[in-house]
Amino acid sequence: MARHSTGRGTRARTFRLRLIAAAGICTLIAASVVVRPQTTSAATTRVRIDALVRDAIAHHGIRAAIVQVTVNGRTVITKAYGSSMAGVPATTNMHFRNGAVAISYMSTLLLRLVDEGKVRLSDKVSRWLPDVRSSNRVTLGMLAAMTAGYHDYELDPLLTKAQYSDPFAAISSKDQLRLALDKPLQFVPGTNWSYSHSDYVILGLALQKITGQPLSVALRRMVLAPLGLRNTVASQTAAIPSPVLHAYSSERRPFLGVPAGTPFIEDSTFWNPAWTLTAGAVETTDIADMTRTAIGIGSGKLLSRRSYREQINPHIGFGHPQAGCERCRSLNRLYGYGLGVVRNGAWILQNPLFGGYAAVEAYLPSKRISIALVTTFKASGFDAEGNSTDYWTELYAKLGAILAPRDRPPTP
């Protein structure tokens, strides 16, 4: 089975929501993006960005790319490249799945509740979910920081088999929780770091109990609407609002027994995404909302100064590899983790990759620069094991280097 990879040479599950946390890969604003007259410098930057993305389409296995860049609230470029489907060009108003971007919305919701005095990060999860195993040892803050130690259900062979057998089947939050708890804690809560979808499924269930509302309603009321996100909507089905950016994947190649060398790619646009996060946090979006997210979350627009610092703290040096732990690692400048956000040097971001979609929304607070990027892949963008090219992460880093040479995103 193809699995989440933390480095080259292991098979990466692009079907699975994940972060590119590898040693081999580098792997926010007002209610609207203000368009102002371009300066000569901005025009030059736009030309350089355009050349980079065209090169990605021509030479690096990228089928389509939609990009939006802003500097100091001014839009430098908003443009779509390549094709959504054969004969259907990609356009800037197309919708796509945002995956792990919703994790930053969930952590922001939690921190808003902290700012309102309704909860503390140190509160035990057992206060709201007493039946969840070890919840009397795990805090809300541990879930948000991914230090709780729960087995990541995303890696469970039972889920892998079910998804690859029928990628259109629905997976419920109850299913996710059952799989998350079918193995013991991987470490003493709070003592290590490991990326785990299970932590955020449990956090989502707790947030519903805390707010007394469905998660989609609480997120819309306290995060999405205040950020001005008009086109980011919750959906527990395979539906995506039109117009749709189509995605393609080769990851089921090994599971289906397609021989290496035999051309294979399938339209993965409408594979059911319900497995990815708690019901209510599975969403679709567009490039403008990705930019608003990058600036809004990255600038701490909705949070107190204290909570904002908590959210973006990269915790460099925390964590370590540990036998029996799926994704335990030490956080560093290349890949740090706060509360629901990734830190890549000075950049604050989320970078989902699943179901044939790859995206980055990133913000550099010191320069007020945002990058929003979504890509899909050609058949040539996958290897013989069904792993997608990593070039989309390199493309983000190259864009960052053009926009902020002195604060370029760190790469291996």
Structural overview:
Mean pLDDT is 91; it is low at 1-38. The radius of gyration is 20 Å and the shape is globular. The protein contains eleven helices and 14 strands. The protein has one domain: 3-Layer(aba) Sandwich (Beta-lactamase). The chain is of the alpha+beta class and 412 residues long. The longest helix has 20 residues, at 40-59. The strands form three sheets. Strands 1, 2, 3, 9, 10, 11, 12, 13 and 14 form a nine-stranded antiparallel sheet that branches. The chain has a three-stranded antiparallel sheet with strand order 4-8-5. It has helices at residues 40-59, 101-115, 140-145, 157-165, 173-180, 197-211, 215-224, 253-256, 287-298, 305-312, 391-403; strands spanning 62-71, 74-85, 88-89, 96-97, 233-234, 248-249, 266-267, 283-285, 336-337, 342-344, 347-350, 353-354, 357-364, 369-377. Strand 10 and strand 11 (347-350) form a beta hairpin. Helix 2 (101-115) crosses helix 6 and helix 2 (101-115) crosses helix 7.
Would you kindly provide a brief summary of this structure?
By secondary structure, the protein is an alpha+beta fold. It has helices spanning 40-59, 101-115, 140-145, 157-165, 173-180, 197-211, 215-224, 253-256, 287-298, 305-312, 391-403, and strands at residues 62-71, 74-85, 88-89, 96-97, 233-234, 248-249, 266-267, 283-285, 336-337, 342-344, 347-350, 353-354, 357-364, 369-377. The longest helix has 20 residues, at 40-59.
